[in-house]
From TrEMBL:
Belongs to the phosphohexose mutase family. The keyword Disulfide bond does not apply. Its cofactor is Mg(2+). GO terms for cellular component: cytosol. Residues 14-159, 211-293, 302-414 form the Alpha-D-phosphohexomutase alpha/beta/alpha domain. This is phosphoglucomutase (alpha-D-glucose-1,6-bisphosphate-dependent). PROSITE patterns: PGM_PMM (PS00710). One of its GO terms (biological process) is glucose metabolic process. Its EC number is 5.4.2.2.
Length: 550
């Protein structure tokens, strides 16, 4: 075994986005593409530590969502890490770790950080996407200061250090060596399952299934399947077959592993069918997202966050109440009303889980959520799909109410925030940038004007100052806010890999229970029309209609 220094040249655009470096798989398959990024990351980590041998005393967690190229990338990373003098790697068996499980392992074993290979909910395979992200010692996504430093390093890189050691048998639990680096292949599920056991009343949940409660969890052929099988069918003794699409496949079996009504249409159909189970849920490619359904009933992620906040005391981990809650800016304000009623703080952050990290670390919030099918709590520093599913299972067990009843009762108490997101995918990048400039100008010009029964009271581009470390994030989305609290928000996706994606978020509050049963798109029609006419979305995107509506 020898350590080689390979000459390399920078690649353009290795700047991590909302959630790590995410690109077409074909981009990652270019020789040295992954190698450069990993070397740059290790250089930056090394520089952040005092002393020459600093990495030698450190441990990183490594694992991924099992998509195409996962296992090859794992071997490459092991060899680069060993060549750079890292002390130890904890590797999920077969190279698998869901995003929340990676966070859980970093935290439970108190290690330096972790590398997660995932492009989350994006499709996999040669034609699909691949990604890599770094999580810090708190188990959460690296702060922008670190990802930016890595990017700067990728632009000046000249050499990659890599061992020519043979591949590690990543299917075999136990200790292996690459050069002087110890590789411990660990059970991918155990730490995470122990954490779930500590949060929930597994005895009560087991009792539900023993008494005939029925459920369908669609793991979308992704890594969440191994966790859902072990916990739901294993520990909670739900009937075999409760978890479907449970075996992680490199191409997700052709599915787009994004748990929303469009891509999880099969689950939605099952939940509307004559033999629908009591409860339905789906997870995404790396199991940090969740979708919650009752019989013929879809829960919007914003409502899910609000209901979980209102009912958190049903769950043992939150018996004593919540420190506070946080939501990303585009997420509906339904949770704000609950927080107000509970007398706890509610924070509004930019899109992306990394912005919740400081609030969680400083113990300012316990539960966080995003409209993009993400929810989580202080137990890890990522969103956590199966955690959300276990929360909803617990609420049903404790209250004896169905998903639909829980949500309808919630609306009666707090009012309903009608909510929808329209995505326009694959817009040419320049056109998208020009569109955002135009939307910002239009908002400023129309501020104070009357539109039908309401006035546009506030039009701005969301900027955030982190209350813990004072860091600023500007340009986080254009908001048009009306005097009745309804909102239209526009932002460009930071996770796409082709052209630009415009996301338009609509929200309208309805306090009157008699008017809480309209179809969502109908209830939001005024705002959808207004976004079209004021924003000239059709002309500027070249598209007649959004490509995805959730
Ligand atoms: C999307 C979601 C965002 C989420 C992120 C990672 O980012 O909108 O809420 O945190 O994926 O799962 P976007 O593509 O909008 O930048
Ligand atoms: Zn994900």
């Amino acid at each position: 075994m020898t350590i080689q220094s390979i000459a390399t040249q920078p690649f353009d655009g290795q700047r991590p986005g909302t959630s790590g470096l995410r690109k077409k798989t074909s981009v990652f398959l270019q020789p040295m593409y992954l190698e450069n990024f990993v070397q740059a990351l290790l250089d930056v980590l090394n520089d952040s530590l005092a002393g020459g041998q600093a990495l030698l005393g450190k441990t990183l967690v490594l694992g991924g969502d099992g998509r195409y190229h996962n296992s090859v990338a794992v071997q490459t990373i092991l060899k680069i890490a060993a060549a750079n003098g890292l002390g130890r790697i904890l590797l999920g068996q077969d190279g698998l770790l869901s995003t929340p499980a990676a966070s859980a392992v970093i935290r439970s074993r108190n290690v330096f950080g972790g590398i997660v290979l995932s492009a989350s909910h994006n499709p996999g395979g040669v034609e699909g996407d691949f990604g890599i992200k770094y999580n810090a010692g708190n188990g959460g996504p690296a702060p922008e200061s670190l990802t930016e430093a890595v990017y700067v390093r990728t632009q000046a890189i000249t050499q990659v250090r890599i061992s020519d050691a043979p591949d590690v048998p990543i299917d075999q639990l136990g200790i292996h060596w690459v050069e002087r680096m110890r590789v411990e292949v660990i059970d991918s599920v155990a730490d995470y399952a122990a954490l779930m056991r500590s949060l929930f009343d597994f005895g009560m949940l087991r009792g539900m299934f023993a008494h005939g409660f029925s459920m369908r969890l669609d793991a979308m052929n992704a890594v969440g399947g191994i966790y859902a099988k072990a916990i739901l069918e294993g520990e909670l003794e739900a009937p075999h077959g409760t978890v479907v699409n449970a075996v992680p496949l490199e191409d997700f079996g052709g599915l787009h592993p994004d748990p929303n009504p469009v891509y999880a249409a099969d689950l939605v159909a099952h939940m509307a069918g004559p033999n629908a189970p009591d409860f339905g849920a789906a997870l995404d490619g790396d199991a940090d997202r969740n979708m919650i359904l009752g019989r013929n009933f879809l829960v919007t992620p914003s409502d899910s966050l609000a209901v979980l906040t209102a009912q958190a005391r049903c769950i043992p981990a939150y018996h004593d109440g919540l420190r506070g809650v946080a939501r990303s800016m585009p997420t509906s304000t339904a949770v704000d009303r609950v927080a107000k009623a509970l007398g706890i703080d509610c924070y509004e952050t930019p899109t992306g889980w990394k912005f919740f990290g400081n609030l969680l670390d400083a113990d300012k919030v316990t539960i966080c959520g995003e409209e993009s099918y993400g929810a989580g709590s202080s137990h890890v520093r990522e969103k956590d799909g199966l955690w959300a599913v276990l929360c909803w299972l617990s609420l049903q067990g404790v209250t004896g109410s169905s998903v639909e009843t829980l949500v309808r009762e919630h609306w009666k108490t707090y009012g309903r925030n009608y909510y929808s997101r329209h995505d326009y995918e694959g817009i040419p990048t320049d056109a998208a940038r020009a569109l955002m400039v135009a939307l910002e100008e239009q908002g400023a010009a129309q501020q104070g004007k009357q539109f039908g029964p309401r006035v546009l009271t506030q039009a701005d581009n969301f900027a955030y100052t982190d209350p813990v470390d004072g860091s600023r994030a500007a340009g986080q989305g254009i908001r048009w806010i009306f005097d009745d609290g309804s909102r239209i928000v526009f932002r460009l996706s930071g996770t796409g890999t082709q052209g630009a994606t415009l996301r338009v978020y609509f929200e309208h509050y309805e306090a009157d229970p008699l008017r809480q049963n309209e179809p969502t798109q109908q209830a939001l029609a005024d705002w959808i029309d207004l976004a079209q006419s004021l924003g000239q979305l059709r002309e500027r995107t070249g598209m007649d209609a959004p490509t995805v509506v959730t």
